[in-house]
Amino acid sequence: MSAPSVFASLALSAALGLTLAPVVSAPVRAEVSAGQAAAPVDAAQIAALSDMMMIGDIMAVMREEGLEYGQTLSSEMFPDKGGAQWQAVVELIYDAETMRSRFEAALAQALAGAGPELAAVEAFFGSAQGQTILRLEIEARRALLDSDVEDAAKLAWEDLSAEGGARADKLNRFAEVNDLIESNVMGAMNANLAFYRGMSETGAFPREMTEDQMLSDVWGQEPDVRAETTEWLFPFLSLAYQPLSDDDLDAYIAFSETAAGQKLNAALFSAYDALFIRISFDLGRAAANQMMGEDI
């Protein structure tokens, strides 16, 4: 039995404010001298950063995506066993406040030792330009919940990419600087592995599935995940940044290349990875119980 890819709902967080997809393959570790602990970022700083980065709005969109994905899971894995019970479980797993709390806890760990960079982060994203960028990213992600909008965005990117030119080059550069393809691919595969582990723990597989077997199956999904990542990411970037001037987009790329931009990007991916692994594991366990007709 193969678990369905959880990519569509769980990855591609990374593009929002250097965020939206979840995720990097290993946790960020601050570089400190031997015997020294990285200075923690206090809760008030994290809460302020979260508010400035509009994380609450991002979590609201992720909840919409998750509820939609829950219905897809039901139709693919147990079409006759869904219903109100399954819907209630999915709503609990994608509780926006719980997701935000877990994300902020993981972000605090990932940003340990990053005090000096936070001032530069706040200067960029706290500015009118930064806030505009964040709003455009969130609006684009919400818009892409509509399949017609998604199809139109894909066609628009295909045209833009075929024509070439400065805007297409800038979007490719933005994706490269922020490592959006590789990080999202690894995040999606981490999420898929967590889904398997959740199912395996609940005994859903006909015979015991070893860790090596799960890893092998997940790695077998890599080409499809990579294709899906690319297919979604560039239409999203094109749609989100269409209203931006070239100067604004250049400023965003320039910030992304700084030490502060790179630190924030890595920390956000790490925090989303932690969040999505937990979500995927819970989904796998809940799906297995639903398939077997047990109380969740």
In short:
The chain has 296 residues and is mainly α. It has 14 helices and no strands. It has helices at 7-10, 43-52, 55-77, 84-93, 96-110, 115-125, 128-143, 147-163, 166-177, 180-201, 211-220, 222-241, 246-257, 259-292.
Molecular structure report:
- 73% of the residues lie in helices and 0% in strands.
- The longest helix is centred in the last third of the chain and has 34 residues, at 259-292.
- The chain has helices at 7-10, 43-52, 55-77, 84-93, 96-110, 115-125, 128-143, 147-163, 166-177, 180-201, 211-220, 222-241, 246-257, 259-292.
Largest sheet: none
Instruction: Tell me the structural class.
Output: mainly alpha
β-strand number: 0
Percent strand = under 5%
Q: How far apart, in Å, are the first and last alpha carbons?
A: 21 Å
What is the subunit organization of this protein?
single chain
Supply the number of helical segments. Answer: 14
State the low-pLDDT regions, or none: 1-36
Mean pLDDT: 86
Query: How does the overall form come out from the CA principal axes?
Result: globular
Estimate percent helicity: over 70%
Rg over CA atoms, rounded to whole Å, is 19 Å
Query: What is the N-to-C order of secondary-structure elements (H for helix, E for strand)?
Result: HHHHHHHHHHHHHH
Observed structural traits:
single chain; 296 residues; mainly alpha; 14 helices; disordered N terminus
Q: Secondary structure elements and their pairing?
A:
Layout: H1 7-10, H2 43-52, H3 55-77, H4 84-93, H5 96-110, H6 115-125, H7 128-143, H8 147-163, H9 166-177, H10 180-201, H11 211-220, H12 222-241, H13 246-257, H14 259-292
